[in-house]
Amino acid sequence: MKQGKPILLVEDDVVDIMSVKRALRDLNIQNPFFHKNNGEDALEFLRNADSPRPAIILLDLNMPRMNGIEFLKHIKQDEKLRRIPVIILTTSAAEPEKVQSFDLGVSGYMIKPVDYMDFLNVMRTISSYWMTSELPG
Amino acid sequence: MAGLFEPIWKDLSVNKLGLVIVLIILGLSVIAFIGVLDQTQKTLMESSQRESLSVAKTAAGLIDGDTLAGLKPGNENTETYLMMQENLRQIRQTNRDIIYIYTMRTDGQNIVFVVDPDYNYASAVSPGASIGQPYDDVTTAMIQGFSFPTAEPGFTTDEWGTVLSSYAPVFNSRGLPVGIVGVDINAEILAARLLNLRLQYLLVLLLMFTLSVAVGLYITSIRSKAYNAIKEKEEYLKSVMQSIQTGVLVIDAKSHMIVDANELSLSLIGAPREMVVGKICHSCICPAEIGKCPITDHNMVVENAEKILLTVNGGKIPILKSVISINSGGKQLLLETFIDISERKRMEERTNQLVRDLEQANNELKDFAYIVSHDLKAPLRAIGSLSQWIYADNKDKIDEEGKANLDLLINRVHRMQGLIEGILEYSRVGRIREDKECMDLNIIVHDVIESLPAPANIRVSVDNPLPSLLFEKTRIHQVFANLIGNAIKYMDKPEGEIHIGSCSAGDFWKLYVRDNGPGIEERYYEKIFQIFQTLYPRDQIESTGIGLSIVKKIIEMYGGNIWVESKLTEGSIFYFTIPNTYTVKGKEP
Question: CATH for A7-124, among 3.40.50.1100, 3.30.565.10, 2.40.400.10, 3.40.50.2300?
Fold first, then answer.
């Protein structure tokens, strides 16, 4: 990913967090990595002036307290946060959730594969895409 | 139903009626008899008086007054006397009613006889009187008779008997009255004639009486027959009405008053007849329709309409009602017939409740299948990932057997993943609905063949042009993908043949997918369409056993049918039908 730019993962499942961390390690991605357990914590982190501004957000949909869709609604209304690219990383392949996500301006929608090797491929794709794509400052 | 069939003349019993008729006829007869008899009696008297008077006048005219005046007592054997006797006898013979005829004169003090034809006469009816023999029972009429012809107003009785007398004056040559001629009509003859008349009238009366009795009896018998017939009919109608298992109310269309009610309707209302008959219909039936009766106010027809019957306790009974307007004796009546549908209503309510419960359960089940399978995925993924990491992180510590076990574990994770996806897919059919579009099956089948990587030894071909149907794209794709996919997956011949075709079959399109694969035993024809049912061990051919159950669910959702015909080792044909109401017009093959 863009050199040195932080990545924010919003995810509550411990094994899924481990999967992302492991994939980043296996793919030798060195960017700073931040993790929040739900939408509320993530919003608080993003709105804290001391926090580094992430270059990309990996967002789970099904989370306690504030779920992914609610989180999206908040940041897309926030002038400072709305341009941060968000990629959905979820279990749900349901059409309504996909439609809702894209309506809220997500940059990608990935389904978490059962096989870790497949997951690694998903992460590799995200990484290579964002290595090439230009991002707003 | 006494009210409806009450004959107006019921109080007057049939026998009494006959008697009244007889009495009226008899009474009239007696009055007529008395009237006629009285009149006849009068006429008879008058005619006798007239006759005797005229005989008296005639005789007076014939008698010479001077001669009469000249006869002295003791002259009884004179020629003049005897001739006068003979003349009077002859006059008497002209009328058989006359008993006596005689001449009289005054001698200053008394009225005395002069010529009496019976005096000294051999065949006389009485001894007769001699000249100068005084008459004692003088009447006013007799005295008047010396001046002008006079009749006695009635019968008179003297020593010679009871008679009806008339008198006429006899004048002398100077025109002065010198005596009278008296003519007596025999009262006995008159009485006999009257009696005869009375008897005749009595006979007529008796005849009339008999006739009237006969007529009365005849009328009575006819009426009684008619009455019995009506009564029988009435009984019949009554029993039909009362035992019919339908509530019946008869209502006067004008006043909306209940005129009649049968047993069933009374027992439903729960009140005796007196409390129902005479009431306004809305107090028992259709309470919501006061002033807007569909029949009388809106001129509509009520047939098998659901209405309400009010019971005496304020309860409401749902009824199914029909109303017929009838005309009875110039009165417009509404004949309301109804049945109690409480039980049916209760059943309906129960059925509706069951349907609601079932719908809810079904919805819960649908959601349940979806949520469960969705939530199962996360831990399954964790198991998969963790086992892979264990192997990756401990490659040098895990031996071949351990590796094989971990491989099996990951393989089972994949299988479970497949099952979960299958359930999700299965639950999506019917739950997630797409818009139906015009689907050209030729294109769909072509796309499906393209998307399925068929090995080089398998040839897939379409036998004839396929129809275009209104269908959800995903679903029709699933149908062919599963059927053709299965044919490829299970193909066991070196030269595989898969054929797709269609034909019209009545109201349906019949489509088929035929292969020359291993075939299916007949006992599995049903089983293969059930969810999670597979015919081969999963380690041999990886299958979730969901595909055909999804196909079946889709086809049945569209009102079609699916079945298989097969010959073991030679191949199978999967047939399915789709109602041709889904055919796109103008796009038939």
Answer: 3.40.50.2300
